[in-house]
Request: fold
Amino acid sequence: MEEFDYVVVGGGSAGCVVASRLSENPKVRVCLLEAGGAGNNWVVKAPMGIAIMVPSKTNNWAFQTVPQPGLNGRKGYQPRGKALGGSSAINAMVYIRGHRSDYDGWAALGNTGWSYNDVLPYFKKAENNEVVQDDFHGTGGPLNVAGIRTSNPFQEHFLEAGRQLQLPMNSDFNGAHQMGLGVYQVTQKNGERWSAARAYLEPNLSRPNLKVVTGAPARKILFDSKRAIGVEYSRDGKPESVRAKAEVIVSSGAFQSPQLLMLSGIGNAADLKGFGINVVHHSPGVGQNLQDHIDYAFSYRSKSLHNFGISFAGLRHLWKEIGRYKRDGVGMVTSNVAECGGFLKTDPNLAVPDIQLHFSVAMADNHGRNRHLGHGFGCHVCLLRPRSRGSVTLSSADPAAVPAIDPKFYDSPDDLEVMVKAFKITRRIMDAEPLAKWRTGDMFAADVRTDDEIRGALRRRSDTVYHPVGTVRMGTDELAVVDPQLRVNGVQGLRVVDASIMPTLIGGNTNAPSIMIGEKAADMIRAG
Reply:
């Protein structure tokens, strides 16, 4: 069995950071196990490749939830990255950190060291921001943050619609204030996707003390009594093992980190015994506390070729845009589709924004899995701090089985009622003249008017906007799975480092916070 100081399970947004940072010390040997592939082909690098990956199994686990009563019994769709870079290899590249109050809230729950002032230096350490240089941003970090390079006029149409409604504008959602509408900054460099793998791993693959193994899904963590000593994984269908002298670090995401813990004997003892799994430590909080941003997508037809779509004219236009991209790294191929958006309040008395918009330069229908002839645009609106709490549980003791994912969308009636308000606010923007003049049809909401009709529309068409967190919750109470140092309670030599440790869902996209968690964890691990 090959031996390393640290074994990192999962080469996603946090795992890439941890493996890279720990291997900066040439005296430390690090092994990174990734279930997917290298994540370095054109479909990842070209931002527009999102349109291929998200609806399919290309670099994508393409999970489904269990049937959701709040969605009329539908199964939700949960795309998650399956490649080095994890979901940063397939996401919309929107660079958002969340609100200051999110992290101060974590600290108030007893998570010492996780306030906004504590985590801001790690956001800055990670970042090389081409757009903004001020006290809120970093330069020289591995993660490149840039402006959108499409020059799409629909950015201005969206912003002008907001101005006509006297909504505030915001040029930097990660600065002093989050409130307002604006154009998103993206994790791109020279018009290419800048995933966590490209930022942290690829420049350092020549390090002799860093071994990266792809196509290596983990089967279980190996224990000597209550100390993690290694990982068993599959390679070419055969079981292999690797030993960790210092620590095993699980960075497999909000669905697969709790699954791996449970497969390894850490979870609710009664449930584990029911699957014939030997219990290493009874930890009933594993897999609980799942939180995700529930989202509704408006969609409109348009004849403008500035919007993605399917037509002969559109194909000719796209061919020209591919040429521009190859020459200059600009234009339509650099689009993350969700180019604009913002943060608004459904109640002016709220202390912080409670909804987020993602304006889309394409028709949005079922995560891009339902294709329509013609062109169009749309707008997502998501609930930033849902009250509903779900779970991830085992469906089988087979490591290759998909876990049972139950977000319990709209389980809390309050979530549905806030989304009714969010629906109305978003439609006002979309109905404003600067956008309305470009549309030729409302695909899904033309006849939706009353509150009851809105509730029905929300249940028919809502789903995730891809931000699951919280299933290996950090805290100091009995149900917390990890402590504020991200060490798994009840055992030794084991940490979890990814979005699953978030005690509460942050107000925004979760990729940048996951990278921050990786940066902070690496420092905590090195400190001992």
